[in-house]
Every structure is written in C-alpha cells, then in structure tokens.
Amino acid sequence: AQSVAQPEDQVNVAEGNPLTVKCTYSVSGNPYLFWYVQYPNRGLQFLLKYITGDNLVKGSYGFEAEFNKSQTSFHLKKPSALVSDSALYFCAVSLEYSNYQLIWGAGTKLIIKP
Amino acid sequence: ETGVTQTPRHLVMGMTNKKSLKCEQHLGHNAMYWYKQSAKKPLELMFVYSLEERVENNSVPSRFSPECPNSSHLFLHLHTLQPEDSALYLCASSQDPRITSLELFFGEGSRLTVL
Hints:
Structural class of chain B: mainly beta
Shape of chain B: globular
Order of helices and strands of chain A: EEEEEEEEEEEE
Oligomer: heterodimer
C-alpha cells in the first residue's frame, strides 16, 4: 500500500535553533512531494514542492526541503526557527498519473519555544 | 477576497438536522475538493469536482451529499449525521485535477460538531 509517514507527532525546538520535520514515503512510481502548513484555526497553506530537478527545494517563510530518493524521504528544514513557525505541518505525495489523489501524512505539530 | 472562502466557520447540529457547508473559490480554478480532517489522522479526500462534474467519490456515506452548481461554488449538504462525523471540513481548489504536480489552495475550513 502507498503511504506517507511523519514519524513524529510533535517536534519541540527552541527559537533560533534549526528545525527538521521528517517525512518518508512508500509509493510505486516517481513521486511529486509537497509540504503544507496549518496555523491554528486556519486551513492548509502550501509551503513548497518537489517535482523534478534539484533535490533541494526552497519555499515560503525560509523553509526548504531535500528530496532523497534512496532514503525515500523529504524532510522539511529551516536554519533558524521562529515562534511564529509553530503550526501543524503535513507532508503529501502524488504520482504523475494518479488523478488528483494525494497521499497525506498524519501531520507533525511543531512547537517553537522562545 | 481570499482565494477560497468557506462558510460557516463553525456549525453545531443535531443528528436529525439538515445543514449545508458552502465553499467559493476566486482563483479561476477548474477543480474543487472536499476533505475531512480529523485530529492526528491524514486528510481524507471525500469528493472531487472537475468543471462541475463529480470525478471522485471516495466511498463517502450518503448522508454527505455534494453539489457543484458552477466551477466557483461547491456545497456539502449534511443530513442525519453521526457524532463521529464531527471534524474540520476543508474545501480546496486547483487549476487542473489531472496535473498532479499542482498544489492545492485550501479554505479555512468549517468546524462541524454533531451532538
């Protein structure tokens, strides 16, 4: 079965420290990979995506993610965390011929402490 | 106007009520989606409409009935719901549902509580 795993329910980071939110996937075929963020009482907001090309993708709010094909991972990173980065982060995967089907992770709650 | 607008933001209903959720997108997109979000679970795709035609129905109970009168509006009609249907219902849109490299644009959600 095709799946996306976000192994940590919650990640705690001190403000100013680097952060990583992990995502691994198991799909057949070439994946398109996405990160979305959900702030409290809000809908999801697109952060960044990997389609092809450079494995390091840069997105909104200083976030970046690295596609690692051999490890089937797409971890989200930021060099210096802000308190305002505290939110719920979702990883999602689609396939080229999957017709609007996104496979979602369960989400990781990121808490940045001042 | 924000890209995707959902109303109401909060809804409390009894199991015998009939209510509707509304979604409107101002992005000129051709596809609209309903998702169900429950705590600590992946988002569940419920329905997909492409150019007002339903193209996906992910085994959703008939107590949920979607309607897409045009490419900008999407409704979710609710009837005789169960307490386990309490969740955040998210509407989303995209330019073309067949191009799976495109990102989704979400509304802020309708928080539904079924008593």
